[in-house]
Design brief:
The chain is α+β, with helices and mostly antiparallel strands. Helix content is 19%, strand content 28%.
Length: 256
Amino acid sequence: MIISDHVREALTEFGGQAPFDHVVIDNFLVDEWAEKLEAEFPAFDDPLWHQYSNAIKVKKVCNLWNLFPKHTYQAFSWLHSTEFMALLSQQLSIPGLTPDPGLHGGGWHIHSRDGRLNTHLDYSTHPKLGMQRKLNLIVYLNSKWQDSWGGHLGLWQQKPDRKAPGKLVKEIVPRFNRAVLFDTTQDSWHGLLPPLVCPEDETRRSLAVYYLVPAPEGTDPRGKALFAPTDEQQGDEEVLQLIEARAKVKTAGRED
């Protein structure tokens, strides 16, 4: 098992927190595993990355299993395992929970200086499996990270009168070996703002795994993330058109 012994107990704190159900778990991985995964993390200029660079998202990602080194491959495999699914399902009382073996939207994520991720809702229905996205698990692998560099994961409540983020309720520092698990079905607006101010030779690194359930009747069919403009981007037609294109499976790829 790659996760620490206290994770089972920590999961009992999931839920009942604003602005939507979540839990922050420090020392999520066994120390040895956290160190190995950080050591295997590729450099920002490695050619394996897929890059996003636009007004709403500046980051790089990789979800190709055949490119993962030994320990990273094993870690993702365990986080998709029957054993871990049983733990999550039991502790969170979520029947039918299953991983996405294709790591759609998951895998390695990396941000450098000026990296950003506008506030958004994740896709609601998996575009290929037809299941509802239920949980996000993020594990940070930045042993040298300093709070002053930013990169905090923000959690926003939704405005009562429309589908848009309202008040920023919580910011979570991306400390080394810290995991964040949250429910993505509760108008779960989250993002990474303002842009990072870390040194040029430092990066914000994380692993991301998403878990699915059979889609309940009436589930939003949206298969891509729905982004929100920042206050400065309000009324900017180019940004609004980008957001509209990114929210549709057929047009999202043209805007990456």
